[in-house]
């Protein structure tokens, strides 16, 4: 998953992109980058491994002059964690300097890459986005817009993109609309971002959310809608609403906070925990769900776990050993809330089960009499091919174990998952959702190449 931002027609665009990336940090913590384009069309880039704050300072932002900028925060779902895969991806083409920030995953990138390499193409990284850059640069289209369209017609999967070619910016979303992208206005300029929280931070007003298949040109403070991409059944990623997006964002036309509260209420209706004396969340992603659960059940809401905010999302760390150790660094129970009580713990999802298992042990050690775990989404039974970093099927506890086996593994007194129907109803039945990781209903084919490309190390890796 990634966070992307584009700023056009605003002085010091790189500084605004930097601020916007701060608000999008939760969407990717492996690398951060900004490309800025000055009045002469000269593009300059700065990219690095790690967090936004670790990569940018006054000096390197001053070295990114211009009123056009595109920024990216990444965590890898295709390609390994090396600087060569950090975005924006920038190249010189016959149309001028081209930079791309991509959120999503192309499912046929592996096949296309093999074909391109066989014809002599050179790749510096192993991300799927570089495939798109090649297709745009090689297209025989008469205009840049034709070239981009031509490239997009060859790829399949999830893409929300901000592209700059020279000083012109483009924003586009695949026709299924897996990932969000929103447009806002800031004085006489335009800002595009993965989530509205980025617009809030930089003081841009929200103009509209791009619809699936939308393709726009942004230039001189104007947004021009170009012919849309060929329509496909809409499949918005429901996991954006369940877990990924920030609750203060509006995604797919819905308040993320509002959806999460409703998921919590629905969970309380479907899987009540009558023995519960207090309910609390696994902060922060399930805070709103616990609130909803408390509202609908009447069980008192408490803060039972405190999160250390100086630790990144455990899941994002690539090795299993690190992930397990970090759970304790990240959470600590509030003994006074828990001691002697029958507690209801609400979390948004169960992936491998490691976090919950350790949490339950911690909660019991803090004196809980009973632990009832409630999850605001159904069992995750398959990987995501569209940009969320879910592990392989074998590692997904919901794919390999029955609910009773999971309850035993986690050592909880009761375990309740929200149903697929309940999740979709709470998220908004009017929206076409992708819930493949829960239901196994994938809206595209899944070529083997994707699995091979994922975590493939490029032969040349710059680790500066
Ligand atoms: P696990 O221990 O693997 O079951 O992880 C479950 C926790 O990871 C839950 O608290 C979720 O909030 C969180 N989570 C779910 N999906 C992801 C993801 N794709 N990236 C990072 N964290 C996640």
Keywords for this entry:
six-stranded antiparallel β-sheet, Glutamine Phosphoribosylpyrophosphate, subunit 1, domain 1, disordered C terminus, 18 helices, 2 domains, alpha+beta, Rossmann fold, seven-stranded antiparallel β-sheet, binds adenosine monophosphate
Describe the protein's architecture and organization.
Helix 10 links the parallel strand 17 and strand 18. The protein is of the alpha+beta class and 464 residues long. It has a seven-stranded antiparallel β-sheet with strand order 3-2-4-1-10-9-11. A six-stranded antiparallel β-sheet has the order 5-6-7-8-12-13. The chain starts with a strand and ends in an 11-residue tail after the last helix. Helix 9 (256-270) packs across helix 10, helix 9 packs antiparallel against helix 16 (420-428) and helix 11 packs parallel to helix 13. The chain contains 18 helices and 24 strands. Mean pLDDT is 92; it is low at 455-464. The protein has two domains: 3-235, 4-Layer Sandwich (Glutamine Phosphoribosylpyrophosphate, subunit 1, domain 1), CATH 3.60.20.10; 255-431, Rossmann fold, CATH 3.40.50.2020. Bound molecules: adenosine monophosphate.
């Amino acid at each position: 998953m990634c966070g992307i931002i584009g700023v056009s027609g605003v002085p010091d665009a790189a500084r605004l992109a930097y601020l916007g990336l701060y608000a999008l940090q939760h969407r990717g913590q492996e690398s951060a980058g900004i490309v800025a384009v000055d009045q002469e069309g000269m593009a300059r880039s700065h990219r690095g491994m790690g967090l936004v704050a670790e990569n940018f300072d006054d000096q390197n932002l001053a070295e990114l002059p211009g009123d056009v900028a595109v920024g990216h925060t990444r965590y890898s779902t295709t390609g390994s964690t090396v600087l060569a895969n950090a975005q924006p991806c920038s190249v010189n083409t016959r149309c001028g300097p081209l930079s791309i920030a991509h959120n999503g995953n192309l499912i046929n990138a592996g096949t296309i890459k093999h074909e391109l390499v066989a014809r002599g193409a050179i790749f510096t990284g192993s991300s799927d986005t570089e495939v798109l850059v090649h297709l745009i640069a090689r297209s025989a289209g008469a205009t840049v817009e034709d070239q981009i369209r031509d490239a997009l017609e060859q790829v399949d999967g999830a893409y929300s993109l901000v592209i700059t070619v020279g000083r012109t910016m483009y924003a586009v979303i695949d026709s299924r609309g897996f990932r969000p992208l929103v447009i806002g206005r800031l004085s006489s300029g335009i800002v595009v971002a993965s989530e509205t929280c980025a617009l809030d931070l930089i003081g841009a007003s929200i103009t509209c959310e791009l619809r699936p298949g939308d393709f726009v040109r942004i230039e001189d403070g104007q947004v021009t809608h170009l012919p849309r991409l060929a329509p496909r059944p809409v499949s918005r990623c429901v996991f954006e609403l369940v877990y990924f997006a920030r609750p203060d964002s509006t995604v797919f036309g819905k308040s993320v906070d509002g959806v999460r509260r409703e998921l919590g209420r629905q969970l309380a209706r479907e899987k009540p925990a009558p023995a519960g004396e207090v309910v609390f969340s696994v902060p922060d992603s399930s805070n709103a769900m616990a609130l909803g659960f408390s509202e609908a059940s009447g069980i008192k809401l408490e803060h039972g776990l405190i999160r250390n905010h100086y630790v990144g999302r455990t899941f994002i760390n690539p090795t299993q050993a690190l992930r397990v150790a970090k759970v304790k660094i990240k959470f600590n129970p509030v003994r006074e809330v828990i001691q002697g009580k029958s507690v209801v713990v609400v979390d948004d999802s169960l992936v491998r089960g490691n976090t919950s298992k350790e949490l339950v042990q911690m909660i019991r050690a803090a004196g809980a009499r009973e632990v009832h775990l409630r999850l605001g989404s159904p069992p995750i039974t398959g990987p995501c091919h569209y940009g969320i970093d879910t592990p392989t099927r074998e590692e997904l506890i919901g794919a390999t174990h029955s609910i009773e086996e999971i309850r035993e593994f986690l050592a909880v007194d009761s375990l309740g998952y929200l149903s697929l129907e309940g999740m979709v109803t709470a998220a908004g039945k009017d929206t076409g959702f992708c819930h493949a990781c829960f239901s196994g209903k994938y809206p595209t084919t899944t070529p083997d190449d994707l699995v091979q490309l994922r975590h493939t190390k490029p032969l040349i890796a710059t680790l500066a």
